[in-house]
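Reminder to self: keep the SMILES exactly as supplied, no canonicalising. Ligand is magnesium ion.
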Amino acid sequence: MSGTEKKSSNIVWHEAGVTRQAREKMNGHRGATLWFTGLSGSGKSTLAHAVEEQLHRTGIRTYVLDGDNVRHGLCGDLGFSDVARRENIRRIGEASRLFVDAGIVVLTAFISPFRSDRQQARRLLGDDFIEIYCDSSLEVCESRDTKGLYQRARAGEIKDFTGISSPYEVPEAAEIVVNTGGMSLQESAEQVIDYLQHHRIVVVS
Ligand SMILES: Nc1ncnc2c1ncn2[C@@H]1O[C@H](COP(=O)(O)OP(=O)(O)OP(=O)(O)O)[C@@H](O)[C@H]1O
Ligand SMILES: [Mg+2]
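Structure tokens returned for the bound complex:
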């Protein structure tokens, strides 16, 4: 996988006349990336969409980048080896940066199991990166088994499955840790919105 190497040296950055600042002013809020991470079944998609709905209702421009959906298109060529997972997350980081530059609050819902990959996204996005760890134990996620994938992974039908045959590296300094294994969806969404309000990332009326 050679996703990071430049294919041409004849590429010059074109400065936009319409700046991020101008776009944010027009939108009435800043752009940011809410990066949900956690095991399969921990609640990333469910929580990201619940948070998005609340933000959207108050006029905030949002977009969810969700693992399965993105793997149909932007990352449709990638599998689940360590290298492919890294490239997947690298592309999501870059895509998020474009959304943030457009003044949008982008919510990403990817397992993103490797700390170094999340750190790379954090470096890329700086203060615009808010890591949200959906903290749910393997036992809880496996008992939910929303997609039936754990059962298949246990049966050896899926290799490199996070939590079973591939590691998940727990975030060490996530901005928000949500106990999605124990709290209700509503409580979890409130916790995220409260954080965003408190840190003035968005003002939800
Ligand atoms: N506090 C909570 N937050 C989010 N989801 C919750 C919560 N409590 C229970 N759930 C349930 O847990 C399940 C989480 O599934 P979801 O598809 O959102 O997980 P995911 O992390 O996106 O998994 P995957 O990586 O496979 O896409 C849903 O059935 C949801 O209703
Ligand atoms: Mg999901």
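Points to follow up:
The chain has eight helices and five strands.
The mean pLDDT is 93.
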